[in-house]
Write a structure and sequence with these properties.
Length: about 150
């Protein structure tokens, strides 16, 4: 079964915001120290099931975009933001998204040790599992509780 982060990357791939395995990844940016491409990684911090809105789960998602060119990094991050900010009621593979809200637009967080630009955006997802397997987001996120993608990889 795909993790929640994988489902989100698949959604972005289908929406045309990038290509899974080429410029969209989950949990960690790949080691592309010699590449001049812009890449994004999706990491999920699973939240607990809602005590008042069962079986919904609130999860925080961070997207870290890295690029040699600042404008290209911002454009790639903004493309993802446009697919997720204030979007309601859509299906992933194993989860139904009740809502996804950007928590501020994409913002520069500086450069990595190789001078590549880093842009971060955070989102809140409210989801529920459509497979009957329990809570979504947290149960299937597969991130080990990490809340950020590794910018130095």
């Amino acid at each position: 079964m795909a993790t929640f982060a994988e489902e989100l990357v698949d959604f972005l791939d289908t929406a045309g915001a990038g290509t899974k395995g080429t410029d969209l990844f989950y949990n960690k940016l790949p080691d592309l120290s010699s590449a001049n491409t812009t890449v994004s990684a999706v990491a999920v911090h699973p939240g607990p099931p809602s005590p008042t809105r069962k079986p919904w789960v609130n999860s925080t998602v961070q997207v870290l975009t890295r690029g040699v060119d600042y404008d290209a990094a911002v454009i790639a991050a903004s493309e993802i933001y446009g697919n997720w900010h204030s979007v309601f009621d859509y299906a992933l593979t194993n989860n139904q998204v009740v809502s996804s809200i950007g928590q501020g637009g994409p913002a520069s967080i500086g450069q990595d040790s190789l001078g590549r630009h880093l842009v971060s955006a955070n989102y809140e997802f409210i989801t529920y599992d459509t497979t009957g397997g329990g809570a979504s987001g947290g149960a299937s996120s597969g991130t080990g509780g990490k809340t950020t993608a590794d910018p130095e990889s």
